[in-house]
Q: What sequence folds into this?
């Protein structure tokens, strides 16, 4: 998932560069900047849950808390799926826009 994080950083840099020139860009280009911001946010939210999942999975767990830990890990996996779908949708929206 390091690639995901690097992709988000590159999108952020591109967005900042385009925002700098936004006063002279066409309306369609300014809409692309907004779509880049949406994609950046979706990738950031996905990265957050990936990092959380990794961190939580590496923590030692007392047997007393194992069931709660397992439920939390399952919940994180569901959240990750939802956030992945949102990121894919944001990417599709960006690529569809002309």
A:
């Amino acid at each position: 998932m390091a690639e995901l994080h690097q992709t988000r950083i590159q999108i952020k840099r591109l967005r900042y560069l385009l925002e700098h020139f936004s006063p002279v860009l066409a309306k369609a280009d300014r809409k692309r900047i907004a779509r880049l911001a949406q994609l950046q946010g979706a990738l950031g939210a996905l990265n957050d849950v990936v990092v959380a999942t990794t961190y939580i999975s590496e923590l030692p767990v007392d047997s007393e808390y194992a069931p709660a830990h397992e439920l939390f890990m399952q919940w994180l996996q569901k959240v990750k799926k939802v956030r992945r779908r949102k990121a894919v949708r944001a990417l599709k929206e960006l690529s569809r826009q002309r």
